[in-house]
Amino acid sequence: MSNNNPANKIEGLPKGFRPMNSAVLKLEVPQRDGYHRHWFRGTPERISRARQAGYRFVEAEDLGDDAVNSFDLAGDSDSAGSTDMGSRVSVISGDDIAGNGQPSRLYLMECPLEYYEAGQKVLADRNEGVASALRGGKIGAGHDGETVYDQNNRYLKGTAPDLFTPNKRRR
Fold first, then answer.
1. Domain ranges across the chain
2. CB 3.0-4.6 Å disulfide test: which of 36, 58, 152, 159 passes with 108?
3. Is 45 strand, coil or helix?
C-alpha cells in the first residue's frame, strides 16, 4: 500500500518528464524512423506542392501517445494538441487570416526520407551552381542576350576568393 505523503521518496520520474525551466517548442513532434516530418501552411497551393513532393498528412493516430505540445489555455489537456476537427494533425498558425476570415492553419505532413533527401540534393546542386558562378566571376554568363561587351565589363575579372564551401547537411 502506497501513501501519498509528500515526504515519501518519489520512485522515478513520470513518462515525458520535462523540468519547468527547460524550453518547450510549440511545433515539436516526435520523429518517425524513415520519414521526414514538416509543418506546411494550409493554403491549397502549399498543400498541393507538398503532395507533389511525396508528403502525406499525418493523422492523429500516427502520433500515438505522443502529441503536439498543447498551448490551448481552455482546451482539454488530455487531447493530442491538434486543433483540427478531423483526424489530420494541425494547429492554428497565429500569424495571418485566411481568405475566408478564419485563422490559417499549419498541417503536419511527412514523406519518405529518400524523397526528402532527393529534394535536398536538387537544392544543394542548384546552390552550388550559383556559388560556382560567383566564385568564377561568371554571373550571367551564357544567358540569352549577353554580349561580349557584357562579359568584358563585369565587375570581377578573373577568379574570386573562395567564399563558398559546400555545406554538408546533417541528419
1. 35-112
2. 58
3. helix
